[in-house]
Structure formats: C-alpha cells, structure tokens
Amino acid sequence: MNYFKLWLTAYLNPRKFADELANKPAPRWGFIAALQRGLMDSLFTYLPVYLLGRIPPTPSNLSFIPTENYYGALIIIAPLVLIFEWLISSSIMHVILKLSSKRSDFDQILNISGFLALSIGTVLILWDAFWLTFGGLNQYALGISHLIINIWAIIISTIALKRILEVPVWLGIVLNIIGIIVTFPLAIMFMRSPL
Predict the structure, then answer these.
(1) Where are the domains positioned within the chain?
(2) What CA–CA distances, in Å, run from 76 to 15, 71, 191?
(3) Nearest residue to 34 (alpha-carbon basis) of 153, 105, 119
(4) List of residues 6+ apart from 179 with CB closer than 8 A
(5) Portion of the chain with pLDDT greater than 90, in percent
(6) How far apart are CA 191 and CA 78, in angstroms?
(7) Does the predicted model carry a pTM greater than 0.85?
(8) pLDDT (tens digit, 9 = 90+) per residue, 143-164?
(9) 3-class state of residue 104 by DSSP
(10) Cα–Cα distance between 165 and 98 in angstroms, integer?
(11) Can you tell me the distance from the alpha carbon of 52 to that of 42, in angstroms, rounded to the nearest whole number?
C-alpha cells in the first residue's frame, strides 16, 4: 500500500491502517507525515490568514515577533512546533510503555503518531477553513471543537497501538490523553487560532 492509500485508510479502516503501517519504514514515514501536516498548516491555515491581514486574537508570547506579524511567523514556526510536539508526545508514550514493562518500539510509535498527526490534522485544517470562511466560532469554541475531533485520533491511535505493539486498550487511551496534555504548553506558547 502506498503512502496516499495508507493516509486514506486511516479514515476508512483503522485496523487495516494499523496492519499496513506496521510494515512501513519507521520512523521515516511517520516523519514525512508529521512534516506534511506542519507544512499543510502553514500553507492552508496560516498563509491565508496572513495574506488576509488578520491579527491573532491572542497576543504573541515572543517579544521579538509583534502580534500583527505573528501569522506570518507561524508560516515558518508551525511546522517546527508540530514536529517537536510529535517527538515529545511519542517520547512520553515510549517512556511510559518502558516504565510499565510493556512492549515498545519507538520507531513504530513515531510512525503511528506521525500518520495520526497528518490524518487528524487534515480534518482540523478543513474544519478551520470552514469556520474561517463562514464564521460562527471564536477561538475558544474552535479549540474545544479540536479536542472533540481529537477523540477520533485517540481511537485510531489506540487501535494501532493495540495491533502493532499489543498495548492494552485502556493504556492506549491513557497514553494518547497524556500525549495530548504534554503538547498543550507548546501549543499555548506558540500556536494561534486562525479565528
């Protein structure tokens, strides 16, 4: 199964996705997927809002980047932050599995989380574009909706962790929730809502 088909399979058949992903080059495919997600955020979320002259609703936390130019900076910063979030959440999952004497393969975890970042990230980009175009949500409602959409990511990831690494379902859910929580500080510090 090629890269594009694997990406689509994550939406349509998470079990088949997990089985196919287990045989793909790890962590290379996960890195490519995570990088693609970051570049898509830059090109399809932050570039349009920057070109429209919008200003983020939350001020810049970086004193050297003025708030009015922050969306422009996010065109470059977003992929770096998302790659770092991918690495840190995968690392935490790996460490927790090792400390709990469960089977772990860091390369496979990177592949799983990279493809999930791409799969769910694509949905989030389309979701954001819809609300940016038609209005109706503020940054807080958008953030809450992202968390609700992330439930889908938790389900797909838990299936993949179970099928590839034999992680118990309950632990897969806990790992995913912890993975989301540890990335919050980075997201709050650097990322901004397009609304």
Answers:
(1) 15-190
(2) 35, 9, 11
(3) 119
(4) 89, 90, 92, 93, 113
(5) 96
(6) 7
(7) yes
(8) 999 999 999 999 999 999 999 9
(9) coil
(10) 12
(11) 14
